[in-house]
Input
Amino acid sequence: MTFWLLLTVNSVTFGGLLFLLSAGFSLIFGLMRIPNLTHGSMFMVGAYLGSTFLGGALGFTLDFWAAAIISALEVAVLGALMERLLLRRLAGQQLAQVLVTLGVSFMVADLCLMGWGGDPISVSTPAGLGGFVRVGLAVFPLYRMAVIGIAVVFAIALWLMLERTRLGAMIRAGVDDPQMARVVGIRVSRLFTIVFGLGAGLAGFAGMIGAPILSVYPGLDQDMLPLALVVVILGGTGSLLGSFLGSIVVGFIYNFGQALLPELAYFVLFLPMVLVLVLRPQGLFGGRLL
Amino acid sequence: MTGRRIAIVVAIIGLVIVPYVITEVYYVNIASQILLYAIFALGLNVLVGYAGLVSLGHAGLFGVASYAVAYLLAAGFGHAVAIPAAIGIGLLATAVFAALALRASGISFIMITLALGEIIWGLAYRWISVTHGDNGINVTTRPAPFGLPLSSARGFYDATLIIFLLAVASSAIFVRSPLGAALCGTRDQPRRMNALGFHVWMIRFMAFMFSGLLTSISGILFVYYNEFISPQALALTASAEGLLMVISGGAGTLLGPVVGAALVVIVKNVVSGLRFTVLSPMGFADLVKFVLNGLFQHWNFLLGAIFVAIVVFMPEGLVPGSVRLARAAWRTANRSKSARPAAAAPPAPVAEQKR
Amino acid sequence: MTALAVQNLCKSFGGLRVTTNVNLAVEPGERRLIIGPNGAGKTTLFNLITGEIAPDSGAVLLFDREITRLATRKRAHLGMARTYQIITLFARDTILHNATLALLGLSTLRWNPLVALHRQQHLTAQARAALERVGLHDIADRPLAETSYGEKRRVEIAMALAQNPKVLLLDEPFAGLSIDERRDVRELLRRIPRDVTVVMIEHDMDTALDLADRITLLHFGEVVVEGTRAEVVADPRTREVYLGE
Output
């Protein structure tokens, strides 16, 4: 019983992390019509930068949350720069853009290896969240509950941003119909930069938030990117609700798969993605942005 | 035409005498690696270059044949059984890949192939009872067809060269054939091809099968070359490297993938071993050498940078790109003589979006 | 017998009805002109006839054989050929190669992966003959990217004619042409033998009027008027559609 409960909590936690990672991936996909293959790299860079700030490498030590936010901002700048300097030059050539993000992901992976070495870096849970909560007979790690909380807060904040702000309205217009958005006077190119930065920043933040659970290691990018892909394929591109539901579903498939069918864990994970792509290309939960 | 024939003969002679010119085993092995990856790249090029379908899951197909041959050999079967069976299994996997991926084109095709490649990788990594997971499978013997042992570096090179030449020849014949022309047609104007009476899906399927055949053969060679197979050879990175070979050399050309394979293998193996000596109080030249040393150690970074640079600056690839630059230079030099306006077709970018 | 018949054909995209209960009956050898303002659903009708879009309801018949659900490529083998309003050619190849592909589409040779295409003399000769019909044989070996727009239009027609179709669908063959080029294309179309049935879309009424035996006026996806040249021109509804635009 406790085993199942813990597995469920782990699934939801992982789903929350995946949501932070894939919300931006989904928005970028919805708006620019390309899978950003550096998204895993952004996650990893966020985690590496955050762990460095935490370790006080720059002469001063930051608190966990400050480190997470600052690394998220830096990764956001990186993402925006990549959009401006590289993807912009290839506007309209989706295939070339995908290939460029693939190349950049190679470069980032090796840069991280140069900078932080090959050994995994473990990140301790932030102060005050190292304990456990007791519910009846079951005991849950407090930090995992906090991650779920953060994911929910971000989901609501993103939803409000998309539904209530001018920027959100422009993003929605761009996702629905890029041509039309251009016609009504939205500067789509600047929107691309903003969304790319926002998505990258969210991924970087997710990396740091996930670091106490996953730790940071070379290859983390290649582990996370396919998961974001699965989420977005299941949830549909450009859909916040889709990403949310997709993240939870993938969180469950991943954790239960690892626990129950370890030999076929990846098969179980990717098969739904293939089936959805083949049978229902608009995603399981439709394509509308919510 | 005769000039072309002479060039082909010279190239073949050059390739045959490689192990006699560079006798060092290390370099002969590098040459074998280039050839076996060139076969892989030629296979991928059938899809990427001629069908306009970018696969990011080809390392998976490569791996199916690799694991099949390694598993069968480890189970005690002879080479004469393992090799054809592995090709058969590779083709079967290709047919499944094709049936699923050809529901789409463009970005969706990339995503489906990527997911399929990840499935194969996941099975190799986790289906430990069959694949031994990260430990991989060892292969202890290389075959000795017609009494010629492949256990020496030179013997292996010769065998790989023969298969490579067959792969190039079959690609060349295919591309010039009616079916090859039809395939290029489906890349450029699928809709028109359909209206002209061509079965676009079936043409693409056949191209996929041909691609899978070359990919499986290279996968089997890979196992014999390394005498080992592990999930690393199937990872997304491996698929991306294959794509880099095709695109850097020039997708949709015969020579391009071969040049690309040479580039990638050389960067990975040779450049990563290079070191400049850097003097202690650094001058500017020493600083450059220092930076280069750093880059040489990190071939993944270098490969990524080459990839990005080629996609951005020379999207048609090195071979057609160099030809274009050479022609442009030639034309500039002869501008006064040439009467015909230089209204050459714009280079068709490899990565242009197909609908 | 009709060469091409369309019966109660309907198609909507989302909530928008682009083809509503369209009926056509084209006699063998007839020249039928389909006119209508922008957005009348002319090209959609062609796409429905060739099967590039599946209709919601209704039927398409080719020489009394129902082909409504038949794959587009199979319709080509039954003798249906079309051109595109937006040039849809193989830009990397020569004019000759474009024409050769049209011939290859109907030949069993298209599945052959072993022989060299450029050595198939009979195919090349046929392709050159097809180009001669449209006056492009002199520049047959020129890359398509180096040809003019008017020449590309003629390649479009040459490719369709090369297939020796029984029913030829021309989607705005005069679009974007100069006056001289129009004259050439008109002459070209006039020379098409009468065993070929021709259905032609035009946006303007006047451009191809003299080529047509009968005219169908399409407006908002519906047939408004159909009849002989004189009948349609004289019909007040025609004037209404074109003046009310």
In short: The mean pLDDT of chain B is 87. Chain B touches chain C at residues 173-174, 176-182, 184-185, 188-189, 191-200, 206, 210, 343-346, 348 (CB under 8 Å). The radius of gyration of chain B is 21 Å. The domain at 2-269 of chain B is CATH 1.10.3470 (ABC transporter involved in vitamin B12 uptake, BtuC).
